[in-house]
Structure formats: structure tokens, C-alpha cells
Amino acid sequence: MRPIKNVLFDADGVLWVGGKTIPAAPDAIQKLREMGLNVFVVTNNPTHTRQAIADKMMGRGFKNITKDMIVSAGYVTAQFLVSKGFTNQKRKVFVVGEKGLIQEMRDNGINAIGVDDLPDDPIENLKLDPSILACVVALDMTLTYRKLAIGNRVVVENDAMLIGTNCDNALPLGNGVFVPDAFPNILALENSSGRKAIVLGKPSPLMFEPLHTVRGLDVGETLMVGDRLNTDILFSKNIGSRGCLVLTGITTREDAMSVPVEERPNYICQSIGNIPELVEQVNAECEELKGSDYE
């Protein structure tokens, strides 16, 4: 076992729930950084740009947060499109999502358009631009039937790629309230178009690529902290890192213990406030093992 040098945090359900910040979160992240660890936020929420997420964190009491510390499903989706040649401005992307996602796409050189960029013609009379060659579907709290219908037409009539930003089913808003996340929207277009979506976001290993290729992070020295088994913890297993479940979001301790052993997290903590102590404990154990091996 190697010491932990990098800690990746999910956002919703870990740093905050709905509009409320987890009380211990800002201090926990600050302490980890003071301990010399690299800290990043790896979130499946695609509704904001990375800069907007950094600004949101600063406004909630987190210190010295920059967009380079953020890996979002929107950013990874944009990078995926870049790899497919969509920086060519003649290849457009229709987004079933919020304005923040469209802006993140544009910030990365993608010619992304939304429903407001199209004529307000009846759906059946709308003339589709044949250069729209991808449809990205995401969490969208401004979702309308028109967005889904145009997305369906783009996929079917333009033979466009269907891309989902993430596979989360539900989003916690606090007070025990959950609302649909991105995956129900993706399923709607899969079912209506008859096409299978390429789904990015955690648990896809692509979410770790920017941290590995740009920052040089080693998965063997990385801890992923999240509140979901099927995204955060599965992501940790897919990339080969360790995973810690916190109980402030979707998943309960009972949920975690009810799945097969190989699907369980390495650690379970009540909240993000316990993470610095966990890292100290794990790293101390690594030092002890190193010393005993040497002897």
C-alpha cells in the first residue's frame, strides 16, 4: 500500500447538499492542502463552467480555488469532442442542457448551440442544419419537450453522435429531496431515437485523464471521495485508486454493506470532515509498513 498524495472530491453530496455547504468541507480541504496533498474536485454536474464552480466554492468559504482544480463532466465531454475533431467550427453540437454547459463547450473551442440559437419554428417544420453532428444530453433544470424533440431529430436525421455527460439517476437537493439527474434525459433520447449513447462522466476512466496527462497524478497514490457507489466508488475501482464513501449524500452505510465485497469502498466516513484524519492514519500505516519492510 502506498501513501495518499492526491485526494479527489465529488461535489454534490460531498462538499454541499443542495444550497447548503457541508459545514466541515472548507476546513477539511484547507487542512489537506496544508498537509501537502493535491486536492481536486471531480464532479459529474455539467451545469456550470469550471470557472463558475470555482467561483461557487470561493463564495461558500473554500479558499484559493481555481478552475484548474476542477474536472467536470462538462469539461471532459468537451475534451472528448475535441478528440473527435469538433474544434472544426463547421461541425456543430446541439446541447440538451443548461447554458453553463454550452459555455464550457465554447470555452474549449466547440461550436455548441442550444435551443435558443435555433429558429422558433414548429418542431416538425424546423429545418435542421446538416452540420450538427453531435447531440450532448445532460442534467437540465430548464428541460423542455422542444429540447428533447430537436435532439431526437438531430440524432436520427443527421445520424449524429448521441453523447451523455454522466449516468447519475438522481440529484440530492437537501431535506431528503431528490430530483432527476442526467440519465433519465439520456434514456429518453436513447428510447426515442433507437440509438445508444456514449456516456461520459464518472465512472468512466476518461474523468481521470486530465489529472493523469496534464497533472501527472498516479492512481496508486490517489483517494476518491464520493457519495455514490455506482459513480464515485466504481470510478475509483475503474482507475485503480482507493475509494472512500461519505454518508452525506445518496448512499447509506447499509447500502454500501449490501453490495458484493468487490463493489464496496475501501473506507466509509461520516462526512468530508473525517478525511484529513483518515489520510493521516493511512499514511502513518504506510510509513510503518515501509519501516518494517526495510528492517
UniProtKB/TrEMBL annotation:
Its cofactor is Mg(2+). Divalent metal ions. Mg(2+) is the most effective. GO terms for cellular component: cytoplasm. One of its GO terms (molecular function) is metal ion binding. Pfam families: Hydrolase_6, Hydrolase_like. Substrate binds at residue 202. This is Haloacid dehalogenase-like hydrolase family protein. It comes from Trichomonas vaginalis (strain ATCC PRA-98 / G3).
